[in-house]
Amino acid sequence: MKYQPGRMGTAEGIGLAVIMTINSVLMSSPSFILEKMGSLAWAVPFISGTIIISSLFLLAHVFNRFPGDLVSTTEQLFGKVAARVIGVYYIFAFFFQAFSLTREYSENTLLIALPYIDLDTAILWYGLGAAVIVYTGIETIARVIYLALPFIVSLILILLFTSYSLWEVNYLFPWQGYGLNQVAENSVGLSGMNVGIIILAVLAPSFQTARTLKAAAVFGVGGASILHSFIFVVFIMVFGLKVGTEKILPLYEIARVAYLNRYVQHIESLFIVIWVIVGILSITACLFAGIFLLSRLANFSTIRPLIPAATFIIVEFSLLPPDLTALIKLASKIYLSGFLGAVIFPIILFIAAIIKDRRKKACTYDQ
Predict the structure, then answer these.
(1) Is 322 exposed, middle or buried (0-12, 13-18, 19+ CB in 10 A)?
(2) S-S: 49 plus which of 94, 225, 299, 356, CB 3.0-4.6 Å?
(3) Least reliable range by pLDDT among 81-85, 139-143, 159-163, 259-263
(4) What's the Cα-to-Cα distance from 214 to each of 12, 52, 60, 218, rounded to whole Å?
(5) Distances in Å between the alpha carbon of 4 and those of 7, 283, 294, 301?
(6) What pLDDT was estimated at residue 3?
(7) 5, 352, 1, 30: which is closest to 190 by C-alpha?
(8) Would residue 292 count as lying in a domain?
(9) Is 5 part of a structural domain of the chain?
């Protein structure tokens, strides 16, 4: 499986962007954000989404001036040592996301669907499912994700609208939550949870043009942010602030209380379908990105020899945390450093590109 540039379009980019940002709303993060922000928690996805889109636009500008992927462009601007350091950082970021998602999805699968299955077995099935899909290549992965998006989004919207009878608009007030300043500050920090979106920069040469990358950022991240905000709004209207902060899996809880009539109620089975599809595809994308970066740093012509070893490591690391609470605490600390990779480094790369571009022009004028 060799690296083939220029074979993905906007559709594939949108699929990758959505799948790398949708996980947070399926996990327990809405409850955490609701506890920190109050009734204005729905604004957090808009703010963090805008920050992420801006970061990708900066990187697209850099790739216009210095063509290549994230590693090669960093090497052009800062040298080989810096490129390897940045590469190792993002390898850790993607592999950590892969292992934490594997453990969280496995634990919650046991909680909501298969209580009698062993945790080891659930983790193994998620790992093997992701590994098999990785073998098909990034183009196939991205297209499968894009084709699955209408199905996933439709099911989520069905879950949300079936809870219409429980909506209480008054729960959205006071509209300013716990303060606009706190919402803005925390939204910037929580942008690190979406560090996985840098997969678009890692695979930049796979897209047709820089415009394709920008379109994927706008429609992918923007669409996911709107969906996240709507889920927050419905979640708050259904449960309120006090009860909402106690829910472990908000979207699943909405599915449990959904009621249209005696024939359409307790439709959590729809959520389980979404859960498994999104879980395997998200783990696959993270696993591929980490393996791809590793192969770039090691100058391998193919990633296939690394897939079994990387999958084995991810599965083994997924078994290390003693429980889900310990994993969530660890993830919350790691994701704070994700802000560096999602926002700070793109800004640094953009500034370096401008400086180097001006120096090139100055040298040209001198000649």
Answers:
(1) exposed
(2) 225
(3) 259-263
(4) 13, 11, 7, 6
(5) 7, 22, 17, 11
(6) 42
(7) 30
(8) yes
(9) no
**What b-and-e string marks burial along 13-43, b requiring 16 or more CB atoms within 10 Å of the CB?**
bbbbbbbbbbbbbbbbbbbbbbebbbbbbbb
Question: In terms of residue numbers, what domain contains 164?
Answer: 10-366
Which tokens is 57 given?
């636009």
Rounded to whole angstroms, the Cα distance separating 40 from 185 reads: 13
* Residue owning tokens 């098909």: 136
Q: Please report whether residue 105 resides in a domain.
A: yes
Report pLDDT digits (tens) over 230-249.
988 898 898 888 887 777 78
CA-CA-CA-CA dihedral for 307, 313, 315, 318, to nearest 10: -140
Identify whether 1 is part of a domain: no
- Report the domain count for the chain: 1
Which tokens is 289 given? Answer: 């990105």
**CATH number, residue 124:** 1.20.1740.10
For residues 366 and 184, the model is more confident at: 184
Residue 264 pairs in a beta bridge with 261
Residue range 302-325, pLDDT digits in tens: 888 899 999 999 988 888 888 877
